[in-house]
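Shipment paperwork, digital attachment
Item: protein structure file
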Amino acid sequence: MNATPLLELKDVHTHIGAYHILHGVDLAVAPSAVTMLLGRNGAGKTTTLRTIMSLWRASQGQVCFEGVPVGGPGTRSSPPDMARLGLAYVPENMGIFADLSVKENMLLAARQAKRENQLDTARLEWIFGFFPALKKFWLYPAGKLSGGQKQMLAVARAIIEPRRLLLIDEPSKGLAPAIIQNMIEAFIELKQASTTILLVEQNFNFARQVGDHVAIMDNGRVVHAGGMQELADDDALQTRLLGLSLGSHQ
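Attachment content:
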């Protein structure tokens, strides 16, 4: 990874109550690329995303954005501060507002728009091209969408406006294969438009198609970092680090 990282974690430790979850995470996220964060369940991937967003505070180490410390002891960044820096977070539980319509959810996520006619129409139609169900159910309560449609809405909310960095936790979860492929194409177009993405994903075929770089976590640490293609081409490395082979997840 030759580019200066947009985001960098340096020896980050995170405690949640009495539990020490992250044990010195070192992670660099290159600009205008997709970095995959992989690892077994419980490895610390979600905690890493939440620590970056200041939802949980690092007890040791630094989270730096464009070289400036924004997380860790001595910093006071909050989730709204991170959003103002241009970060958007899609949690695994999606975080949508069930009682509001799809339209209202999108408007809440669009900081530059208070009414529908203020939304970027071209960008909205671009999103609808990948997730046509959102256009069909534009006025429906989000709580009445299927699980896969809610997942589409969660991702669409994050990309309704250009962001500097997207943090997305398992976006393909619950989606039909055709919609997963649409999401892959959306992420590829986003990085072509210089969006930086840090993506947690269990679908390894998805990871191989989208990822430029990869970091693998185990027991609260990054135990491997490199190119996604290098990992995809090395069955022995996959088995050693992940306990499985990407080739078995076509």
